[in-house]
Amino acid sequence: MDSTIYGLDLAKRVMQLHWVDMGTGEIHRKQLRRRSLLEFFANRGPGIVAMEACGSAHYWARELRKLGHEVRLIAAQFVRPFVKTNKTDAADAAAIWEAVQRPDMRFVAVKSVDQQSVLALHRMREQLVKIRTMQINAIRGLLYEFGADIPQGRQKGEKTIPQVLEQLEDQISKMTLDAMRGQLERLKALDRDIADIEKSLALWEKDQEAVSRLMAIPGVGLLTATAIVATVGDMKAFRSGREFASFLGLVPRQSGTGGRVRLLGISKRGDTYLRSLLTHGARAVVNCQIRNRSPWIDRLLSRRPHNVAVVALANKMARTIWALLAKERTYDPRYQGIMMAA
């Protein structure tokens, strides 16, 4: 390999660099301040820069690519086995340098600014949803101490709580009632913030033809489609639909020895957010089977538990998503029947 390989351990302020001189074989270790990192690589010839796929890694990858370097991002769990001694910045940089040279190493695709912007919207929405759930559960628990039975579910709860507060006006002090009503206003503000983010995602969806094609799949909505397109980017990076499903943690774990392999539960590796979106979408499809019958799901439910069928459908949805994006096709619900007839 003619290009110089650099192992770069990222941090907020001080970066650690490890590389080997191709001509002399001399090992170099160097600490760089954040402000000096790009200046160092600007004065070096084009090479291969390997980094862990951690915080700010995609930003530095884009900046180093502008300088003509090839960037390879490695998942942190694939670097850890190559750390020979105690964990230090120098040991991590050396481990990254060694891991990137493995012929079977898998790399993380570098995300663009547009992709990271959309994912930032998803992260903010996810946090707001958690805060909203915590808020309404707290109100439900506080009112339960005064004998109020708030029904389960966010929408039912938001409709019932104002009525309950009116009924308890004679029992609860005014300052407590005012505080409760203030919490309700905060819930409405959270609803507006979540709706605004979803509107922004809908505007982005209009510019992405791939998102529209994915939304034709039953169980795939705006959130799932935009999150997948923004996270994956080029679906051709995966060799098959099963590899994409494995990336999402929707395939069985394997345990075996002596030629005997046992299949366990799903691995739950990869992106938790994408896996949960696909699972919730699959659960919605399975629960709607009374109105929209699917022979494949009916046969599966007849011999396996409900949650197993949900995960199996999520796996099938992941494979379908890979086929649509990697082969640039549109969703056709009759595709399997047409292929079997052919």
From TrEMBL:
Single GO MF descriptor: transposase activity
Any GO BP: DNA transposition
InterPro entries given in the database record: Transp_IS110-like_N, Transpos_IS110, Transposase_20
Domain of life, per lineage: Bacteria
Transposase IS116/IS110/IS902 C-terminal domain boundaries: 212-289
Species name: Acidithiobacillus caldus (strain SM-1)
Recorded coiled-coil stretches: 165-207
Keywords: Coiled coil, Plasmid
Pfam families in the cross-refs: DEDD_Tnp_IS110 (PF01548), Transposase_20 (PF02371)
Record protein name field: Transposase IS116/IS110/IS902 family protein
PANTHER family: PUTATIVE TRANSPOSASE FOR IS117-RELATED, TRANSPOSASE FOR INSERTION SEQUENCE ELEMENT IS1111A
Limits of the Transposase IS110-like N-terminal domain: 7-145
